[in-house]
Amino acid sequence: NNNWFIPGQSIDTWYGVTLNSAGCVVELNLNSNRLKGPITDSIVNLSQLKILNLNDNKLTIGNNTDSLPREMNKLQN
């Protein structure tokens, strides 16, 4: 959608991204956004992520299995 990867553009202006007061990503709301490709293990780098909404896209699991990356267990509630 809008404002993704524009040089000099702050991440808090990216569509579907919500940050906390410390500037960490706490929500990705990208449903029905025509995304396609794998969800990779790097998702765990979003250590403060609380809400992940990727419904109605054409996403696959990074290792082409039917399960999410094992590393997602590292994310805390």
Q: What is shown here, in short?
A:
With 77 residues, this protein is mainly β.
Task: Please describe the topology of this protein.
Layout: E1 17-19, E2 25-29, E3 36-39, E4 51-53, E5 58-61
List keywords for this structure.
77 residues; mainly beta; three-stranded mixed beta sheet; two-stranded parallel ribbon
Write up this protein.
- By secondary structure, the protein is mainly beta.
- Helices cover 0% and strands 25% of the residues.
- It is built from no helices and five strands.
- It has strands spanning 17-19, 25-29, 36-39, 51-53, 58-61.
- Strands 1-2-4 form a three-stranded mixed β-sheet, with no helix packed on it. Strands 3-5 form a two-stranded parallel sheet.
- The protein is globular and about 30 Å long.
